[in-house]
Amino acid sequence: MKRILFVVIGLFCGILLFTASSCKGDSSSDDNGGGTNPSTESGPGTAYIGEVLPPWEAGWLDIHAINTGRGESMFYIFPDGTTMLVDAAGSLLVTNETSMPVDPKPNANVTSGQVIADYINHFIPSVDKGRLNYIVLTHYHSDHMGSYSTSVPKNTEGNFYINGITEVGSDIPFDKMIVRGDPSLVVSKDMVEQTAVTNFNTFMTWAKTKFGATQEDMIVGSNEQIALKISPSSYNNFSVRNIAANGYVWTGTGLESTTAIPSKSVLDAGGDAAAYPYENILSCVMDITYGKFNMFAGADIQYTGMSTYPYMDIETPISKVVGPVDVMKACHHGTSNTNSATLLGVLKPKVIVTNVWRDVQPNAATLGRMYAASPTAKIYTTNLATSNQTNISAYLSSLVSTQGHVVIRVAPGGLKYYIFVLNDNNELYKIKSKNGPYLSE
To answer: Domain map of the chain by residue range?
Structure first.
């Protein structure tokens, strides 16, 4: 009789333990990232599916991949409330002979610049008083800076056309614009037309007078050019390191940098049009660190053409001065001839966020390299064209999310982080999925 009683008691305890363990984890999580009991959570990490993403709070690092369906735009809120916008999508491309864009978000009636400005105005901390501290224009391509067209509205006060970065910069005051460098000194073979750069320069002349804004070339190697502005002494474990820009790559020491790209005078003398570098490899590249958390943001770097011109591979020299990261913003939208095995093998990212806006993104071979370097990587894409699903069918089920704004929310001290996917069909910013917390490594 005692033996039966013990068995019954044992079964009852086992049921209780199973029930308790089943209740652990975030009920809003849609992957195996490891949730925590909601009752033990606090702050901006507590939101759940269907709710509006709560605002940033001091001590947290927010990284937003804003989806417009027309290029790339990343918005950062640093732990003290300092803000940085990296690129402002604004491609007007409708179609071409090689690929189709995805549908614009939330719809074609809202410009890309409007989407970005509305998003920033919704989430920007009150400590910033509605002002951006930094805008970084990684390189001169329309899906990062906006297309130039006389068909878009014109700012008559400043006499420039507004689209992409000039539209966002017209709506939201900013302190500093950081660019890759003077495009007339380091010339690429596929930079946007000179009229677009002239329009941008006219915009900056206006912004300097209107907002007191300044403009600087990215200082390769610096971890002080992009710095906390509000309470730097409170977060000594946060920094932004400039890894590369204008074809120059940090050596790992001080502000030393090197480039393998021939000078403009040498290229001009050679008379070989194909020898000029691609605009993408001149992109601004950054490494963001917060405690144990680390993120690599490589803009559109690639290695196309390296078999003929070895210096076209900018990823290999970069791989020599970076290390393993928690999060990687996929280079060049995850397309082909980028995110090399060499770079991925060094970064070994746990999470990869891919800003997709064409039906050739992400590329199947590129996804293969990502998973080869990090077999358990969590990959998020802001879009995924229906026509590309067959091309990446081998990896489709492995992708965590394929549509929406992606928000990486790093807890105070950088020990753990959550990833939220927000509905991009409207501007309510409601949560579609919540993943994590993931422990920073």
So the answer is: 54-439
> What pTM, to 2 d.p., does this model score?
0.91
Query: Which of 330, 402, 397, 396 is closest to 366 using CA atoms?
Result: 330
Q: How far apart are CA 212 and CA 190, in angstroms?
A: 32
- E runs forming strands in 129-256: 132-137, 154-155, 160-161, 174-179, 214-217, 238-245, 248-250
What is the percentage of the chain residues whose pLDDT exceeds 90? 85
Token pair for 62: 């927010």
Dig out the tokens for 397 from the structure.
């089920």
pLDDT tops 90 at residue 75: yes
Q: Which of 297, 295, 188, 175 is nearest to 244 (CA)?
A: 297
Mean pLDDT to the nearest integer, 412-437: 97
Query: Three-state DSSP class for 291?
Result: coil
Phi-psi region of 429 (alpha: psi -120 to 50; beta: other; left: phi over 0): left
* Listed range (184-193, 217-226, 253-262) with the worst mean pLDDT: 184-193
Q: What is the pLDDT of residues 399-409, one digit of tens each?
A: 999 999 999 99
C-beta neighbour count of 320 within 10 angstroms: 13
C-alpha to C-alpha distance for 284 and 141, rounded to whole angstroms:
12
What is the homologous superfamily of the domain 54-439 according to CATH? Ribonuclease Z/Hydroxyacylglutathione hydrolase-like (3.60.15.10)
Structure tokens of 234? 């409170």
Q: Which residues contact 220 (CB under 8 A, 6 or more apart)?
A: 242, 243, 244, 245, 246, 248, 249, 250, 255, 257
